[in-house]
Q: What sequence folds into this?
């Protein structure tokens, strides 16, 4: 039986569908349980069932019949989910009759009322009839005008359907190996890490999180995805630590407060007339941040501020007064303020004061503040998805041997996986090959080995401690981890440079192995000279 609330909603939905409801069906409504989002469809079905064929052909109900029939046609995109900018691309759409009756005189058409794309061929395709459970494919030539996700609207029998067909448009390659990934549709994997961090951010007694990974491991991209996932009353604010050569704690704390104020003003949580929220002394930072949070609670009593602090390694170059006041804010405002910071394992060593540094310096004020979350290589399932899915959008595919080769050379490190795929995709496309094979991967790997050695040197090699480099030299010479202290073994593992399983040792990526070998040779040659 329907509640009074449901009956009111039924009545409102009914009035929007047709001006008069035959009284003979009102009693029928009491015999159904209706979910709110199904009311309109349900009422249409009831009316169709209770009206005669003659009534359905009248002007009053003919449009109702048409709308009801077109909802029995299921629409799915077969190909064309990815397109190239300013090029003619094929969009293939599948129509399926999910009813138990033949549907006649169907007209499927795309809307041309958009500056985002052009339709090269006819925008409307007539279909004389579609039998129950039968499928028909229709195709269009589309030329996208913008490099972004575009929405292609379509109609069935002049009735606009929702949602539209979404298409990702790229200039010439779907793999991203340069800028950080901000678009959620371009981001693959990291579900475990994402869920862990979001849980710490959201729960009342959660902890600040330190995301630890080497250069190009995807730390910044992960911060962007965390920002995308958080909604009101939680307000995430991305801030990158810059100008690390300026060692003034007051300067950097004011930069953080300024970014927070700017974002909250844009979101209209604070107004331009509110205080500047600056600090005269670095020690004022926790109190000023508390005032921002207090004022923001006037907008929403459940307000929570989340600062996503990128490039945390640069904090080490700023004086410890900055770190001490940041710690004070984290500890005393933990209920309404949470911080997620990215850094390399070297900065994590500094904060943790671990013995690999072999230093007697004063510990960082940030010691024992954060929960540590390392960024490992992607899982087997995620790396396969990252390899195959972008190509599949654009009607390219990989043979299995090519996929296995990418896994071996990249080791599941997302940037280098994307880089190998990027080069291989370009090579296949230039040669009009729709299947990417081992030959494409081998040529791509040779390019990556040559072009990206300098990035590995800066992001990994130059950050290794001398004891770690010495350990790697022993590994190459002896193919053994004997005589290597366990804490150094663990450090190399935490960088996801090597993997140790009992007495067996291997590099996580064949690329890393080759680059390490070359850099060791250069180091030893330099020492001899």
A:
């Amino acid at each position: 039986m329907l509640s009074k609330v449901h009956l009111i909603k039924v009545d409102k939905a009914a009035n929007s569908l047709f001006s008069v409801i035959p009284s003979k069906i009102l009693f029928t409504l009491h015999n159904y349980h209706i979910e709110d989002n199904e009311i309109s469809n349900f009422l249409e079905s009831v009316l169709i069932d209770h009206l005669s064929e003659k009534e359905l052909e009248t002007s009053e109900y003919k449009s109702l019949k048409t709308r009801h029939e077109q909802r029995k046609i299921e629409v799915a995109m077969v190909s064309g989910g990815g397109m190239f900018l300013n090029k003619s691309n094929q969009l293939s759409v599948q129509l399926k009759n999910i009813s138990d009756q033949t549907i006649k005189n169907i007209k499927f058409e795309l809307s041309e009322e958009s500056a985002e794309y052009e339709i090269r061929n006819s925008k409307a395709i007539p279909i004389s009839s579609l039998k129950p459970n039968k499928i028909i494919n229709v195709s269009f030539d589309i030329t996208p005008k913008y490099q972004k996700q575009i929405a292609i609207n379509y109609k069935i029998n002049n009735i606009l359907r929702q949602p539209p067909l979404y298409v990702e448009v790229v200039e010439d390659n779907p793999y991203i190996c340069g800028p950080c990934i901000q678009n959620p549709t371009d981001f693959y994997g990291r579900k475990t890490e994402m869920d862990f961090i979001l849980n710490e951010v959201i729960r009342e007694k959660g902890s600040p999180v330190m995301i630890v990974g080497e250069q190009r491991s995807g730390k910044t991209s992960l911060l962007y995805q965390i920002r995308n996932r958080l909604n009101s009353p939680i307000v995430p604010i991305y801030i990158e630590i810059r100008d690390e050569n300026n060692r003034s704690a007051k300067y950097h704390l004011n930069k953080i407060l300024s970014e927070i104020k700017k974002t909250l003003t844009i979101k209209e949580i604070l107004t331009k007339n509110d205080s500047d929220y600056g600090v005269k002394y670095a020690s004022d930072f926790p109190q000023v941040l508390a005032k921002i949070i207090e004022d923001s609670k006037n907008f929403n009593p459940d307000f929570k501020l989340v600062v996503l602090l990128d490039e945390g390694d640069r904090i080490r170059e700023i004086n410890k007064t900055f770190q001490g006041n940041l710690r004070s804010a984290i500890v005393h405002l933990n209920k309404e303020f949470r911080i997620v910071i990215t850094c390399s394992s070297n900065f994590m060593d500094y904060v943790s004061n671990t013995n690999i540094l072999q230093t007697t310096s004063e510990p960082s004020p940030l010691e024992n503040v954060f929960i540590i979350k390392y960024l490992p290589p992607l899982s087997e399932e995620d790396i396969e998805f990252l390899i195959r899915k972008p190509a599949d959008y654009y009607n390219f595919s990989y043979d299995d041997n090519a996929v296995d080769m990418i896994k071996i050379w990249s080791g599941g490190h997302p940037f280098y996986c994307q880089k190998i795929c990027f080069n291989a995709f370009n090579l296949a496309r230039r040669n009009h090959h729709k299947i990417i094979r081992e030959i494409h991967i081998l040529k791509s790997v040779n390019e990556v080995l040559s072009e990206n050695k300098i990035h590995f040197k800066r992001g990994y090699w130059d950050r290794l401690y001398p004891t770690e480099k010495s350990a790697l030299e022993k590994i190459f010479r002896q193919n053994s981890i004997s005589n290597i202290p366990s804490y150094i073994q663990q450090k190399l593992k935490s960088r996801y440079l090597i993997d140790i399983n009992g007495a067996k040792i291997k590099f996580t990526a064949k690329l890393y192995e080759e680059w390490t070998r070359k850099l060791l040779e250069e180091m030893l040659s330099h020492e001899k000279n």
